[in-house]
Amino acid sequence: MNQTQILAVRSAGEPDAEQLAGMLIGLTDLSLYFRFQTAIGRPPRPSLLLRMLCPTGAAWVATRGDAIVGHAMWAWTGADTAELAVLISEAEQRRGLGVRMLSIAAADAVAAGALNFLFVVSPANDLTIRMIRRRWPAAAVERDGTLLNFVVPAVLPDQAEEAADVVDEEIRGLERGEVPTAGELRPMDDVVPAV
Length: 195
Hints:
Layout: E1 7-11, H1 17-25, H2 29-36, H3 46-53, E2 58-64, E3 67-76, E4 81-88, H4 97-111, E5 116-121, H5 126-135, E6 140-144, E7 147-153, H6 164-175
Parallel strand pairs: 4-5
Antiparallel strand pairs: 1-2, 2-3, 3-4, 5-7, 6-7
Helix pairs in contact: 4-6
Domain N-acetyltransferase: 7-172
Organism: Kribbella antiqua
GO molecular function: acyltransferase activity, transferring groups other than amino-acyl groups
């Protein structure tokens, strides 16, 4: 993939199904396991793609040229809890795109009224667990079979809890339909692979 092409993030929808399937087919088994905790098939089932592109919350894709290289979403899991999830192509992992896309999903979930975020993580996914612990040190964690469920306050991943003015501005931008490009997002001091 040509890394010099412009990276764009936009809202996702059903027309993205074929390109998203292509990205999923290109992922390693480990990346797929860390995101879905089960086999999804190659090619993935249309029902899975539909749930990813049209969740009970919202979804976004990152594109480089004509190819989808990232997917992020949030979905309601309760009255005030939004589950956040992200998946990044192999070539784009460990470059900060996952955290940037999580920031977009988190801001949208907060704008929709989420008070808590849920992350469902494999205990083997050390990088994601460290990212959660850095951003939400007091995160409650509960084992659910072979998975870890982290419930954290609905604060943007790269913002301190007291920076409400910054959070409010990002929410207002999302309400106006603005999705920040990668260059407009604040730089991250760490890079995190796909969740």
